[in-house]
């Protein structure tokens, strides 16, 4: 299979490129060449918003568009002259307004989510443009990704707290629910839809089980070989100053995904794999927000 992957050097796009190279696919990535490339890929070195003639006339079995955040990102890629049979766009659960009934379902109206702001709106506009220009494209709407190559300070933050034997400051009582999806499962599901070509073209993707913040932190500490001491933080303190997720609870209905892929990586297994990778690659987490500094200074 000839695949074009947008990105290919960080987290989801890097894991995806490596996954399909190992499957024996002919993988081309398009990025600006500013980071080390996955072994075995062919690089098209350019900004996706200014591809020039680098893609004109090239044909791929599928484009895996992992780095499109705006309508313009989709427009410039499709308008580049590239040819493709299938297109898979990694959108976001942020396209669902928080006022929709939960769990969010694919048939619900999409639009403004005040928690996610421009990020969700731009993903929604990108979806609309793609459906106009490539009606048979697949659109996947994940919750929170996790796994190997994670570059955001989420699991790594909790792992750091555990390894430093710090108490963990929980938002309120820690009962806010989170829904995750392992990058390995994303790649598995992409394989399935490309093979099966289901009539449905929009899928919520994610684990069917949710986990509370307290349970998630407890798993991370346990994997690091530590036991957490929890401290509850009053709701008057801005949650994002000391914790790695917004004060926003939502759940996706992933029944359409489960009809095609019944199993997902158990959360404890996926976190263990991420922890072992993080121990060997601590510098791969680029965006270390100063949660600990805020805790030490104000909590």
Structural summary, described in words:
The protein is α/β, with parallel strands linked by helices and 299 residues long. It folds into two domains: 2-145 and 182-204, NAD(P)-binding Rossmann-like Domain (Rossmann fold, 3-Layer(aba) Sandwich), CATH 3.40.50.720; 151-180 and 208-249 and 265-298, Alpha-Beta Complex (UDP-galactose 4-epimerase, domain 1), CATH 3.90.25. The protein is 33% helix and 18% strand. The protein contains nine helices and 13 strands. It has helices at 11-22, 71-78, 118-133, 155-163, 183-196, 213-223, 255-260, 267-280, 291-298, and strands spanning 2-6, 26-31, 42-45, 59-65, 83-90, 138-141, 144-146, 168-171, 177-178, 180-182, 202-204, 211-212, 230-233. The strands form four sheets. A seven-stranded parallel β-sheet has the order 3-2-1-4-5-6-11. Strands 7-10 form a two-stranded parallel sheet. A two-stranded parallel ribbon has the order 8-13. Helix 2 (71-78) links the parallel strand 4 and strand 5. The longest helix is centred in the middle third of the chain and has 16 residues, at 118-133. The radius of gyration is 20 Å and the shape is globular.
